Amino acid sequence: MGYYSSYGLVAYVVASTISVAALYILFTGSGESFNVGGFLEETSPYAWALTGVALNIGLSVIGAGWGIWITGTSILGGGVRAPRIRTKNLISGVIGSIVFSAKLGSSPTQATLYTAANYYTGFSLFWGGLTMGACNLLCGIAVGISGSNAALADAADPSLFVKILVIEVFSSILGLFGLIVGLLVSGKAAEFS
Known about the structure:
It contains seven helices and no strands. By secondary structure, the protein is mostly helical. The N and C termini lie far apart (about 60 Å). Helix 3 runs parallel beside helix 6 (about 115-155).
C-alpha cells in the first residue's frame, strides 16, 4: 500500500484540466482567444486593487488561524501540566489593508478609470497585498510551529521561556518583512483619480 495525499490529487486534477484546456485551444486554432495582455488591460484597475486588499486580509487571517490551530494542541496538552500557558495573536495584515484602503478613495468614473496612473495604483496594490498576505500566511504557520514547541518547552521547564521567546521573534519577523515590502511596493502609487 502506498501513501496518497489529497493535495497530490487536487494538483493532478488542476494540472490535467489546464492541460486539456490548453490543448483544446491549441488544436482548434483559437489560440488567440487566450490573451494575457488583453486580460490585464480589460480588467478594471480598481478590481486589481480591491483583490490585493482582499488577498492581504484573507491570507493573513488564514495564516493566523493556521498558526493558532498548530499551537492549540500543544497549549492544550502543555496546559494540563502547567495551567499558566496561554496564547495571544496580532495580525499585521490589518495594518497594511488600512494603508491600502486609504489609496482607494472614491471610485473613479468609467471615463477616467483606464489611465496609466490608475493601472499603476491597481497593480501595485494587488502585488503589495499579495506579498503581504503571503508573508503573513507563512508567518502564522512559522509562529504556530515555534509557538507549539515553546509551549511544550515552557511546560517542561519554565526557565526556558525567555530563550524560546527569541526564537518566536524570528518567526514573527516574517510578517513584519511582508508589511515593509508591501508598503514599499505600493508606496509610489497615487490615489485613484
